[in-house]
Inverse folding.
């Protein structure tokens, strides 16, 4: 009745597909099995053990989004699936939190085309027929190294990056003010400064600094539009320090816009 298959993609990760019924179309219930890393110091319970307290369930990914699979099993427990007129699929994908590699691999290697799909991301129990995009960008600033005893003989890339960050944060505020999609819990595009690295010693002028950031655009925003906004935000830095800043995309999934 139910058929379950595992599909290996990259890095020894697996997708799982459970199916019931045959034919074209049908309904796909989809979710992902991975989570973001957890901060051990902020947990008062074992994140890898599901525990209940005060009517709430605690555990890594209970909402985003392992709980969805529990809901599916509970919903189907009393359903006579032999009476379904079209197939029913349950898909669990890997690497959603980073590269979407599991979903990408599945889309590229399967002929499955359901009529409808429900993706069980937490949306406060309100259906949302849209999805934010995801772009990971990096900005590299190249300065000029030198000894810290004579700062005027070098160009400190960290100081230039400080200037650039100010303009990026202004862009973040502008995105929040200009764009809205009320169906989302966070109804505006987000921009997160996630990782920065520069310099190699306290007594050397930093010659190179690199900042990685994450942008979650709203439906309808194009990649060209976002790149244009980022370039405009950094233009004052580029003009002031010509040849020092290089905005480049470090990694990017095709945004679902």
């Amino acid at each position: 009745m139910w058929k379950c298959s595992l599909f290996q993609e990259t890095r020894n990760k697996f997708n799982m597909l459970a199916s019931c019924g045959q034919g074209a179309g049908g309904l796909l219930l989809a979710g992902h099995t991975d989570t973001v890393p957890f901060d051990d110091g902020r947990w008062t319970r074992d994140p890898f053990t599901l525990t209940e307290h005060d009517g709430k369930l605690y555990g890594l990914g209970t909402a985003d989004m392992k709980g969805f699979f529990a809901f599916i099993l509970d919903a189907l427990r009393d359903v006579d699936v032999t009476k379904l007129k079209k197939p029913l699929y349950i898909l669990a994908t890997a690497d959603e939190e980073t590269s979407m590699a599991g979903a990408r691999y599945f889309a590229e290697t399967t002929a499955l085309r359901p009529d409808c799909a429900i993706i069980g991301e937490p949306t406060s129990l309100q259906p949302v027929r849209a999805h934010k995009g995801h772009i990971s960008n990096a900005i590299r600033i190249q300065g000029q190294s030198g000894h810290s005893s004579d700062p005027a003989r070098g160009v400190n890339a960290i100081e230039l990056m400080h200037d650039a960050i100010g303009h990026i944060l202004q862009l973040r505020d502008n995105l929040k003010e200009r764009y809205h999609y009320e169906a989302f819990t966070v109804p505006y595009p987000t921009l997160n400064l996630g990782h920065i690295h520069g310099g190699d010693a306290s007594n050397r002028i930093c010659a190179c600094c690199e900042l990685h950031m994450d942008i979650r655009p709203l439906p309808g925003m194009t990649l060209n539009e976002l790149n244009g906004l980022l370039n405009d935000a950094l233009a004052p830095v580029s003009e002031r320090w010509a040849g020092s800043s290089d905005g480049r995309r470090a990694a990017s999934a095709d945004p679902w816009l």
